[in-house]
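Hey team,

Filing this mostly as a record. A colleague (T.K.) asked me to run one chain through the structure pipeline before their review meeting, and I want the input and output archived in the tracker in case anyone asks later how it was produced. No errors, nothing strange. Just documentation.

Input sequence:
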Amino acid sequence: MPHLKLLEKYAESQCDASLYPKLGSELLPVLASQHCLLTTLFLALWLKTMIACRLTGEDLIHQLCPEDAQDGRKPAPERNYTAGQGETLTKVPALHELTGLGAIKHSKSHRATPSAASRSPSSDGAASTTSTEELVRKCSSLEATLHAYTNSDRVLRHQLWLENKSHAATRHELELEKRFQGDCAEANAKLREDFSKMQEAYAVAQQALGMEQEHHRAMMAELESAVQWCH
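Output structure:
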């Protein structure tokens, strides 16, 4: 496998910590094309842990291949690694402990061949199924929420339409009321003008009545004088 050959090359060269970024940049794209994204993320986290612990290439291979009995080499002892400034880290977990892919077997005749458990399709399939079910549940929940928001938006739009209609009716009523008030004011002004004219006419009539009464009294006085002269 291409990624196993890369690991073998770096293991034989006993690479130091400065070469680990190069290892990650060459190895991760290959694994990304062969395993799910979750496995790649776990591997990236594992490589980051390796770099933080400043492991050598041999330590890296021992972590990758715990079953080196076929090569006659003993697996790396379980020890703590110091990451600088006196901070002691716990034992770095092997790749199969993080990803569930199983240990990678290593032999001299077949440089690096993956074991049957290294792919672990059942675990990957179960994780993928779980992720799919979770995504389906989330999508169903989001769809229900969207449906509820849509119904709520429809109800709010209907209420807004009713309020706009009510406001339009209210504005029409206010316009009619203003028009009525204007008509009333105009009619009131006309009535005041007519009343003023009637008052003027009444004053003229009163004056004419006074003159007529005075003329009547004068005629009565003349009539009485004529009656007395006749006697």
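Quick notes for T.K.: DSSP finds seven helices and two strands in the chain. Strands lie at 81-82, 88-89.
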